[in-house]
Amino acid sequence: MKNSPRFFPRTFLTCLLLIFVFTQSIYAQEQEPDYAKWGEAAIAEVKKQYPESQETDYEYLGRKRVSQTESQDTFEFRVTTGGQKKLVRAYVSFHPQTNKLVRVRLTEVQP
User: Fold this and answer.
1) Which of 29-33's residues contact partners 24+ apart within 8 Å by CB, and which partners?
2) Residues 21/23/26/28 CA torsion (nearest 10 deg)
3) Rounded to whole angstroms, how far apart are CA atoms 108 and 77?
4) Do residues 45 and 56 lie in contact, with contact meaning Cβ atoms separated by under 8 Å?
5) Three-state DSSP state, 84
6) Number of neighbouring beta carbons within 10 Å of residue 46
7) Domain range holding 72?
8) Domain count within the chain
9) What range does the record give for the signal peptide (predicted)?
10) What is the CATH number of the domain that holds 94?
11) Residues 57, 90: Cα–Cα separation, whole Å
């Protein structure tokens, strides 16, 4: 029983440290949504197809499961090219189990 006064502060500090580490890891995961990786692939394709456009901001429209081996995230971009504003949708297909990119397809849509 002589060691019990020392035991409590160490245990308390260890618990606080573990709580801090756990909450920081959760916070780090929440900072970047899971579609951000596919948003970057969509941005790269938009920049390739519309090199004169400077706009890289997008709106995430959602995810759908295409099949057992393919999912698709959809993004919408507003690009300006040659003085004309266009609405472009990017469809990013990927393998949900391996997180490998399958393809990126762009289409211009009417607002």
Assistant:
1) 33/60
2) -70
3) 9
4) no
5) strand
6) 21
7) 36-109
8) 2
9) 1-28
10) 3.10.450.390
11) 12
